[in-house]
């Protein structure tokens, strides 16, 4: 081969040991006559001979047309050197981009091209990765929904994304000519330079304005609330600071609206609770009024029922108690008409006495009715006066003398001072009532005992009889108006006596107690306070 004539140790080093593809292309034969080891290995051939024997006789992925190849050869022969980038082919069919350098040579009267191939695939791959990285950066930076501003150590803005332009009202060119202090409210701008110097001295990733409200300044001077985070990076030993800016105007508006709505809900809850309390109170008041009305109605019904019972008792009592004396008067008057002779004067006198007794009985009944009326109308009052109790008792015993049955006795047992201060009239009526009952409900030859004693300003009077007694069940009702014990209904009486006695005791400030046993007798005990005016 002609090239062998120029082979020496130097060309061996330059050719055989050269990195990358180096080959000698014979223009007359249209193919390589010599290729270094790195060359055929780059193209995937097992040996240089395999490349020489390749029938395709082209290294390009897309073979040039004969005219294009001829034009390229003319340019190389004319200029001596030509460099192009072309897509090359390996023996396996894989392709790759390479820089193709063609240098013309003439040896032994023949034209040759010294061909050098430099694999550009790694460079292209690096360029693609760089382009992808730049694309991702632009996607993140340019299209970020928050403002991003990059400034250098001196505070000059060197980069800002579109959102930052929108936030601060600057065009891209106008913002690039500003310092970072232009974005800070004027009130704190003078202090911001010191803060920036402090950050430059100790840069770190952090948030600004912890527990403080931050604001930023637009180009027109207006301010708006922001949240700012800082980071940094160095490029060729130059410090750059990155500010991530979030406009929180809508966030604060939403928070204020949330607070307003929460306060409104709280106010509505309070009003609702108050309404519930008011309705509950009104309901309770209504229920209380209904309960009161129910009680008043029950009391009215009870009073009506009691009044009805009283009417029934009164009618029953009146028809019975008035009939007996009136019948006696009528009978005696009829008999007197028949006794016309002088000899019948004693009979006329006896019937006149019966008439007087009947009239007196009717008068007593009417007096009891009138006494009840006066008591219930409050027209009876107690008027204490000096009272000689033994004298009062003798007079009372004389008043009921006519009621005694054969053999009945009244025995007084008095241990009291000579005089007391009491209402003599009320006490006399009480004693007459109790003695009358004792004589009326006791049989013949019985004794009624009247005892009196005093202690510590209290007078104790008791009337004990040996009469028919009162059952325990009837004792509970003895002091009610018109009540008659069941074992005494055949005896005359209005059922008002003990009721009047109890009311008089109330006026005197005293109490009444009854102990009774059927067919044994009854003891009524009065306890009455009295005034001691012995010094008078």
Automatic annotation (TrEMBL):
CDD domains: HATPase, HisKA, PAS. Keywords: Coiled coil, Kinase, Phosphoprotein, Plasmid, Transferase, Two-component regulatory system. InterPro entries: HATPase_C_sf, HATPase_dom, His_kinase_dom, HisK_dim/P_dom, HisK_dim/P_sf, PAC, PAS, PAS-like_dom_sf. PROSITE patterns: HIS_KIN, PAS. Its EC number is 2.7.13.3. It catalyses: ATP + protein L-histidine = ADP + protein N-phospho-L-histidine. One of its GO terms (molecular function) is phosphorelay sensor kinase activity. Residues 251-307 form a coiled coil. Residues 133-202 form the PAS domain. Pfam families: HATPase_c (PF02518), HisKA (PF00512), PAS (PF00989), PAS_9 (PF13426). GO terms for biological process: regulation of DNA-templated transcription. It is an enzyme of class 2 (transferase). Residues 317-532 form the Histidine kinase domain. NCBIfam families: sensory_box. This is histidine kinase. It comes from Hymenobacter swuensis DY53.
């Amino acid at each position: 081969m002609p090239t062998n004539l120029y082979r020496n140790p130097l060309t061996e080093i330059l050719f055989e040991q050269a990195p990358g593809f180096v080959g000698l292309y014979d223009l007359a034969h249209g193919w390589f006559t010599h290729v270094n080891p790195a060359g055929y290995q780059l193209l995937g051939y097992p040996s240089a001979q395999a490349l020489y024997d390749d029938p395709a006789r082209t290294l390009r992925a897309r073979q040039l047309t004969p005219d294009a190849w001829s034009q390229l050869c003319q340019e190389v022969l004319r200029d001596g050197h030509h460099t192009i980038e072309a897509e090359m082919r390996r023996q396996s069919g894989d392709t790759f981009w390479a820089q193709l350098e063609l240098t013309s040579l003439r040896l032994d009267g023949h034209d040759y091209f010294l061909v050098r191939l430099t694999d550009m695939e790694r460079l292209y791959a690096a360029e693609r990765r760089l382009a992808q990285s730049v694309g991702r950066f632009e996607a993140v930076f340019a299209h970020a929904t928050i403002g991003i501003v990059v400034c250098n150590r001196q505070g000059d803005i060197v980069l800002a994304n579109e959102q930052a332009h929108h936030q601060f009202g600057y065009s891209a060119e106008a913002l690039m000519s500003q310092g970072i202090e232009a974005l800070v409210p004027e009130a704190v701008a003078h202090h911001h330079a010191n803060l920036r110097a402090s950050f430059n001295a100790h840069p770190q990733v952090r948030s600004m304005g912890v527990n403080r409200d931050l604001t930023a300044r637009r180009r027109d001077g207006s301010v708006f609330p922001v949240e700012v985070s800082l980071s940094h990076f160095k490029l060729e030993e130059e410090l750059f600071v990155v500010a991530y800016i979030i406009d929180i105007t809508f966030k604060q508006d939403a928070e204020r609206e949330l607070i307003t709505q929460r306060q409104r809900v709280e106010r509505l809850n309070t009003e609702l609770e108050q309404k519930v309390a008011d309705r509950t109170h009104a309901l309770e008041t209504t229920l209380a009024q209904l309960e009161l009305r129910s009680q008043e109605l029950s009391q009215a019904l009870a009073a009506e029922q009691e009044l009805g019972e009283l009417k029934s008792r009164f009618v029953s009592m009146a028809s019975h108690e008035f009939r007996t004396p009136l019948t006696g008067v009528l009978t005696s008057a009829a008999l007197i008409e028949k006794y016309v002779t002088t000899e019948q004067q004693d009979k006329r006198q006896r019937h006149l006495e019966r008439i007087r007794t009947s009239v007196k009985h009717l008068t007593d009944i009417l007096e009891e009715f009138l006494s009840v009326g006066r008591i219930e109308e409050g027209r009876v009052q107690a008027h204490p006066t000096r009272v000689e109790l033994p004298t009062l008792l003798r007079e009372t015993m004389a008043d009921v003398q006519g009621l005694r049955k054969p053999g009945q006795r009244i025995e007084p047992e008095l241990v009291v001072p000579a005089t007391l201060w009491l209402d003599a009239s009320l006490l006399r009526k009480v004693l007459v009532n109790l003695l009358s009952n004792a004589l009326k409900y006791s049989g013949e030859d019985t004794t009624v005992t009247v005892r009196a004693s005093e202690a510590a300003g209290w007078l104790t009077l008791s009337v004990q009889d040996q009469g028919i007694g009162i059952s325990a069940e009837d004792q509970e009702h003895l002091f009610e108006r018109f009540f008659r014990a069941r074992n005494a209904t055949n005896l005359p009486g209005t059922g008002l006596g003990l009721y009047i006695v109890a009311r008089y005791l109330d006026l005197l400030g005293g109490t009444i107690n009854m102990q009774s046993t059927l067919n044994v007798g009854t003891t009524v005990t009065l306890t009455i306070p009295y005034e001691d005016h012995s010094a008078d």
